[in-house]
Design brief:
Keywords: 4Fe-4S, Iron, Iron-sulfur, Metal-binding, S-adenosyl-L-methionine. The protein is built from 24 helices and 25 strands. The protein is of the alpha/beta class. The N and C termini lie far apart (59 Å).
C-alpha cells in the first residue's frame, strides 16, 4: 500500500479505454430522451448528486463524469432526485458498472443548517436558489434508494460528505457519534478525497468483472473487510507508541483505531482516533487504518497519490460544456453565477486550520496546474461565457497564494507527519516563493480581451509577508476595493487551537498592503474575518477581540460562528473537551473549553457585533459579571454605552437598521467587516 508516485502510470493512460473512442456528449444525459439521442441503450455509470448538474470543473460530478467519459464509459447524471421513492433513481435504467453517489459540493447538513442548527431557506446549488431540494444526509438517503432501485448494482460513495464521514464521526446536528456513512448507506465502497485516481481504477476493474470486495488494494478507498493475516496490528492507544511500534515491525502494518462503540462512549477515545487519523494523512507515509463497527472491520487504505501537473491539466482540459444543463432553462443557479468566470489553479492546503475540512478532503500537498492550461481556460471563459465583461472574478483555489509551493526536500515531505507547514511557524523546509504565481498573474493579464483579474480566494497573509513583491503585484493589479483575509481572532489561546498565526502577522501584512496601495495610488481596504465560539475561546478572549475591533474601527456586518463540521480537529475538541493536537492519554490530556450553550454562543457573537444596539443589553450584563463594568460608557475606550436607544435591545419588537455608536461607516458592506471612518 506504500505505492510511490514513480510507480503509477499517468491517470489518463493507465487503463485501456472501456470502449472505442466516441464523441463527447454535449452534456452528460439526465433523461432517457437524451440517451436515445446519443444512441445509448444503457449507461455504464450513473452519478447521483445533491447539486444541480453544472458541466464545469468546479462541480465534482462534472469532473468525475467527464473523466469516466474520457475512459470510454457512458455516464448519466441523476441530479437532486425526489428521494421519497426509488422510482426517480430508475430514470436512466440499470447502470452496467456502478452507481456513484455524492451529496454535492458541500456536506448536506452544512448546506441546510446554520451554526445555530436553524434551517436555511435557500440553496446556492439549486435552480433559483430553492431550499429543500435535498434530504438531510443525502449521500446516505440516495444510496439507500439506489439499492432499492437495482439491488445488484454496486454503489460507490464519494464527494466531500462521504469523505468527511468515512469513519465514526461526531455529528453536530444530532449531537451524537454516528457510524461511518458507508455502514449506514449500505454501499459497497467509499472513495475519499479528490478521487480521480481511485474512480478510474474502480470503474475499469468493476467493468472487467471484479467484485467490489476485491478492490481492497486501491488507495483512497474505504470498505468493510477483515484484517489480512500477514498484517501486524498496532493499537492507537497512543500515537507515539504506534510510531515506535511501527519502526520495530517489518512488513505490512495497520493501525487499529478505537472502535465505533468505544468512541461513542468515551470522548477521549474519540479525540485519540481523530489525532491518529490526521497524523496518518500524508500519502508518503500513511498506514492503513481499521475501525471496528459492530461485528465488522471498516478498513481505510492510505490516501491517494496527488495528481501531477500534467494530470491536473488533463482533468481540467476535459470537454466541459461550462454551463448548467439545458433542462434548467432560464433558472439561476447561484453557485454557478458565482464561479462561472473564476479559475481554479491549484488544490490542497498545508495550513492545517483545525476548523477547516479542506485538508481532510483535498490533502495538504499542493497540486498545481500549468500556466498553459490556466491560460487556455481563461480563453474559453472569454469566448464561451455569455455576457462576459472581461473580468475574471477569481484566480486561486482553497488558498489564493499557495500555487506551486512545496517542501524543498521530497524525502522530508514524504516522511513528515506534522498537521501544518505554517504553524506554529513557517517550516524552514517549505518553499514560500511567490515567483511562479507572480509570473502567472502577469501572463493572465496579457490575455487578449481580459480587462481585470481578481483574487477573491483567501490570501494566506503569513506567507504573503514573505514576498513583498507578491503583495505589490496583488495590490497593484488584482484587488477591487477590498481584500478579504482571515486572522480569525486576536488572542493567542483560541489562535493556538485554530493553528493560526498571531495577530502581529496580520498587522505586518496590513502595513505592507497599505503601503503598496499608497504607492499604487489606490484606496483599498482589508476585510478581516473572525470566528465566534471556537473551542478554546473564553469570554475574555471575545471581549478583547471586540476591543481590538473598536480600536481599529471595524464593524462586523455578518458573524461567522464556529460550526463543528464532521472530522475537523476543532470538532474533536468541541465534542471531547480535550486537545487532539497534543497527546491524548486518559487522565493526562490537555482540556479545551468548548462553547456549547446557546447563551454563551450568542454572547460571543454579540461581542463581534459590539456596535449593534440590540446586543448592548447582553454585553452590559456580561461585562458586569466579568468585573469589567469599566467598559460600559461613552468614552472611546469603552465598549458599549450605558444607555439604550428607544426601540432596541430586548424591548425591540423588530430589528432596526444598525447605525452603531460611532461615526457613520463607509457605504460599502461585505460579508466580513466594514471600516468606520
Amino acid at each position: 500500500m506504500q505505492t510511490s508516485i514513480d510507480t503509477i502510470p499517468p491517470l489518463m493512460t493507465r487503463f485501456r479505454p472501456a470502449a472505442a473512442p466516441r464523441k463527447p456528449a454535449p452534456f452528460l444525459p439526465m433523461s432517457r430522451a437524451e440517451m436515445d439521442k446519443l444512441g445509448w441503450d444503457a449507461c455504464d455509470v450513473v452519478l447521483v448528486t445533491g447539486d444541480a448538474y453544472v458541466d464545469h470543473p468546479s462541480f465534482g460530478m462534472a469532473i468525475i463524469g467527464r473523466l469516466l467519459e474520457s475512459q470510454g464509459f457512458r455516464v448519466g447524471i441523476i441530479s437532486q432526485p425526489d428521494w421519497q421513492s426509488a422510482e426517480p433513481f430508475r430514470e436512466l435504467g440499470k447502470p452496467r458498472v456502478f452507481f456513484g453517489v455524492t451529496g454535492g459540493n458541500m456536506d448536506s447538513m452544512v448546506n441546510r443548517y446554520t451554526a445555530d442548527r436553524r434551517l436555511r431557506h435557500d440553496d446556492a446549488y439549486t435552480p433559483n436558489g430553492e431550499g429543500g431540494r435535498r434530504p438531510d444526509r443525502c449521500t446516505l438517503v440516495y444510496a439507500q434508494r439506489c439499492r432499492e432501485a437495482f439491488k445488484d448494482v454496486p454503489i460507490i460513495l464519494g464527494g466531500i460528505e462521504a469523505s468527511l464521514r468515512r469513519i465514526a464521526h461526531y455529528d453536530y446536528w444530532s449531537d451524537k457519534v454516528r457510524r461511518s456513512v458507508l455502514a449506514d448507506a449500505k454501499a459497497d465502497l467509499l472513495l475519499y478525497g479528490n478521487a480521480e485516481r481511485a474512480v478510474v481504477e474502480v470503474a475499469h476493474r468493476l467493468a472487467a468483472g471484479e467484485a467490489p470486495r476485491e478492490l481492497d488494494d486501491i488507495r483512497g478507498v474505504a470498505l468493510f473487510r477483515r484484517v489480512p493475516d500477514n498484517y501486524t496490528e498496532l493499537h492507537a492507544d497512543d500515537l507515539d507508541a504506534a510510531d515506535e511500534g511501527a519502526r520495530q515491525v517489518a512488513g505490512d502494518v495497520v493501525i487499529r483505531l478505537p472502535s465505533c462503540e468505544q468512541v461513542e462512549q468515551d470522548k477521549e477515545a474519540y479525540a485519540r482516533a481523530s489525532r491518529v487519523l490526521h497524523r496518518e494523512s500524508n500519502p508518503g507515509n500513511a498506514r492503513a487504518l481499521v475501525q471496528r463497527h459492530g461485528d465488522r472491520d471498516l478498513w481505510l487504505n492510505p490516501p491517494q497519490i496527488p495528481l501531477t501537473t500534467e494530470e491536473m491539466d488533463s482533468v481540467y482540459d476535459l470537454p466541459y460544456a461550462r454551463a448548467p444543463h439545458p433542462s434548467y432553462g432560464d433558472a439561476k443557479i447561484p453557485a454557478w453565477d458565482m464561479i462561472k468566470t473564476s479559475v481554479t489553479i491549484m488544490r490542497g492546503c498545508f495550513g492545517g486550520c483545525t476548523f477547516c475540512s479542506i485538508t481532510e478532503h483535498e490533502g495538504r500537498i499542493i497540486q498545481s496546474r500549468s500556466e498553459a492550461s490556466i491560460l487556455q481556460e481563461i480563453e474559453k471563459i472569454r469566448d464561451k461565457t455569455p455576457g462576459f465583461t472581461g473580468v475574471i472574478s477569481d484566480i486561486g483555489g482553497p488558498t489564493a497564494n499557495m500555487y506551486r509551493m512545496a517542501c524543498k526536500d521530497p524525502n522530508i515531505e514524504s516522511s513528515c507527519r506534522k498537521p501544518s507547514c505554517v504553524f506554529p511557524d513557517i517550516c524552514p523546509n517549505l518553499n514560500t516563493s511567490h515567483d511562479d504565481l507572480i509570473r502567472l498573474y502577469r501572463k493572465v493579464r496579457e490575455v487578449k480581451g481580459i480587462k481585470k483579474v481578481m483574487v477573491a480566494s483567501g490570501v494566506r497573509y503569513d506567507l504573503a509577508v514573505k514576498s513583498p513583491a507578491y503583495i505589490k503585484e496583488l495590490v497593484s493589479h488584482h484587488v477591487g476595493g477590498y481584500l478579504k483575509i482571515a486572522p480569525e481572532h486576536t488572542e493567542r489561546g483560541p489562535l493556538d487551537k485554530m493553528m493560526k498565526p498571531g495577530i502581529g502577522t496580520y498587522h505586518r501584512f496590513k502595513q505592507m498592503f497599505e503601503a503598496a496601495a499608497k504607492q499604487a495610488g489606490k484606496q483599498y481596504y482589508l476585510i478581516p474575518y473572525f470566528i465566534a465560539a471556537h473551542p478554546g475561546t473564553s469570554d475574555e478572549d471575545m471581549m478583547n477581540l471586540a476591543l481590538w475591533l473598536k480600536r481599529n474601527r471595524y464593524r462586523a456586518d455578518q458573524v461567522q460562528t464556529f460550526l463543528p463540521s464532521p472530522m475537523a480537529t476543532a470538532t474533536a475538541m468541541y465534542h471531547s473537551g480535550v486537545n487532539p493536537l497534543r497527546g491524548v492519554r486518559h487522565g493526562a490530556s490537555e482540556p479545551v473549553e468548548a462553547i456549547k450553550g446557546l447563551r454563551q454562543r450568542r454572547l460571543h457573537k454579540a461581542f463581534l457585533r459590539y456596535h449593534d444596539p440590540d446586543n448592548w443589553p447582553v454585553l452590559r450584563e456580561a461585562l458586569k459579571a466579568m468585573g469589567r463594568a469599566d467598559l460600559i460608557g461613552s468614552r472611546p475606550d469603552q465598549l458599549v454605552p450605558a444607555h439604550q436607544p428607544p426601540g432596541t435591545g430586548k424591548a425591540a419588537g423588530t430589528r432596526r437598521p444598525v447605525r452603531g455608536d460611532g461615526p457613520k461607516p463607509q457605504r460599502f458592506t461585505t460579508k466580513g467587516v466594514r471600516l468606520v471612518k
